[in-house]
Amino acid sequence: MAATLTIGTSLKPQHYEDAYQVKARGLWFEVHPENYFVDGGPRLAWLQAIRERHPIALHGVGQSFASIAAPDASYLARLARLVEFIEPAIVSEHLAWSSFDGNYYPDLFPFPRTNAALTRLAANISQTQDRLGRAICIENPTHYVTIDGHEWSEVDFLVALANRTGCKLLVDVNNVFISANNLGYSADAWIDAIPSDLVMEIHLAGHTPDPVLGTRLLVDTHDAPIAGDVWRLFDRLVKRTGPRPTLIERDGNIPSFSELLAERMAALAVINRSGVAT
Questions:
Q1: Structure pTM?
Q2: Which residues of 6-27 are buried (b: 16+ CB within 10 A; e: fewer)?
Q3: Chain centroid, CA 77 distance in Å
């Protein structure tokens, strides 16, 4: 199914009716599965109804792959049940941790890219893929501070993880731009280094300058339109990879559905201008 997807948007409750009614070739929607870990009710019914008209992708935020512990069995069971029910086009998660020793945090934290971390992450991802019966996508994180102890570059770490597990990559272009800005490296070089054959999905989103530090520290807020520099990087990426299922990600200051569709059309225009086959 993923081959039929073009540009999608985040699916928010205030847009359920619009999403159900809209007709657009290749349109798809992405949700956080944690919001649908329920046995029934209107939210799950709406997701099922929209799934009958449009492909759905599940983008996890709570699996905490980079934690020391193995995947939570109850979480994985609920995710597997939702995957079986919705039959999503893509399942994805973040390269980060958000829980430790039974405590859960509302954030996605980075970690030192060590050989030990690679082994642990590969085991956690493989266990998840075995349980779901499918490959998943792993998203590159957003970085705000330099962490000591890295033994791998980020791109090499992602490639090694994919090679060990058979997972694919979700390239969040906004995360690449923010991280390069905050840590002082080349976003273009990062985009040029990622192997095209491993990229299964792309995310586009907006960001916000820190209220104190300004543009020296960009924050991955998902509450603003996509910035010009992110559009430029997206163009650079798709010229190498060709079209990939691409998501317009919006989680705050939710605009009208028509505004999201306008950004969707802008993304389609980038692909059309890139000169690669659609």
A1: 0.95
A2: bbbbbbbeebbeebeebeeebb
A3: 21
